[in-house]
Amino acid sequence: MEEAGEGVYQLKTPHFAHSASLGASRGKQNEPLFLLTVEVASIYSQGGKLRRIHNLIFAPNFDTAEKINKELHRRSVNLLSDGRPMMGLSSINLIELVLGIDKNALLIPCHAWTPWFSLYGSNSGFDSIEECFGDWAKYIYGVETGLSSDPEMNWRIKDLEDRTLLSRPYLRLVMRA
Question: Are the CB atoms for 66 and 41 separated by under 8 Å?
Answer without folding.
Answer: no
